[in-house]
Inverse folding.
């Protein structure tokens, strides 16, 4: 039920804010529910760009992401930026409903977000696996991580640099007012990376991975450059 609680809270947040993607929340019994939904909704399934299975999200274990069957899908890369690669696990055909969505006939880009993975805490599938394990702060952290992964996907746009012939003069465009202090220095670095790699083909997710900077910093830089008419949206 922890996964259901986090999913409901996330759905309420998404409903209340502007968003680029549409979202579908599936509440169904494990395994048979996912198989039934896929069988009854093949057209809807074919439109799925990214997916997350929520399971075991309320205990004290470290947040963990299991990659989709594809392994390098956009959502896999987004989770790596949010959680760090050390918290990722490779896909395997055992587990929860990610294996149904990732079956070869569908091959959807669906990963799984958990805390303690199934079978890796002593209370799993026992009478001790009860509400004493579930704490509000762990549910909130799981919600925050899920939200952050979706934020990467929502903001992962591809831009084209409109001043691509050499490094542009930033001062006369009023950008240096944003570059004071350590945080401003990081933003300036993000601006330079974003300008250099915005060739109309490279999405911001690639820029963040190559620069080693946080995705949020790169996306903020892109929005600043867009407002100053130095970038245009390609996709």
């Amino acid at each position: 039920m922890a996964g259901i609680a986090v999913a409901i809270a996330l759905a309420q947040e998404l409903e209340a804010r502007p968003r680029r993607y549409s979202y579908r929340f599936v509440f169904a019994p494990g395994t048979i529910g996912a198989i039934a939904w896929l069988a009854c909704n093949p057209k809807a399934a074919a439109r799925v760009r990214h997916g997350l299975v929520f399971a075991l999200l309320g205990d004290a274990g470290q947040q963990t992401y299991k990659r989709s069957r594809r392994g390098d899908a956009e959502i896999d890369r987004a989770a790596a930026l949010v959680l760090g690669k050390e918290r990722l696990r490779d896909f395997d055909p055992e587990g929860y409903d990610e294996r149904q969505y990732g079956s070869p006939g569908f091959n959807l880009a669906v990963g799984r977000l958990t805390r303690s993975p199934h079978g890796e805490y002593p209370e799993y599938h026992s009478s001790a696996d009860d509400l004493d394990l579930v704490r509000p702060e762990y549910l909130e952290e799981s919600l925050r991580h899920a939200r952050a992964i979706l934020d990467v996907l929502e903001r992962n746009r591809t831009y084209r640099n409109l001043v691509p012939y050499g490094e542009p003069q930033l001062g006369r465009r009023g950008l240096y007012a944003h570059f004071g202090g350590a945080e401003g220095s990081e933003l300036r670095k993000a601006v330079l990376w974003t300008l250099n790699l915005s060739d109309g083909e490279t999405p911001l997710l690639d820029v963040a991975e190559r620069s080693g900077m946080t995705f949020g910093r790169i996306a903020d830089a892109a929005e600043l450059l867009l407002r100053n008419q130095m970038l245009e949206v390609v996709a």
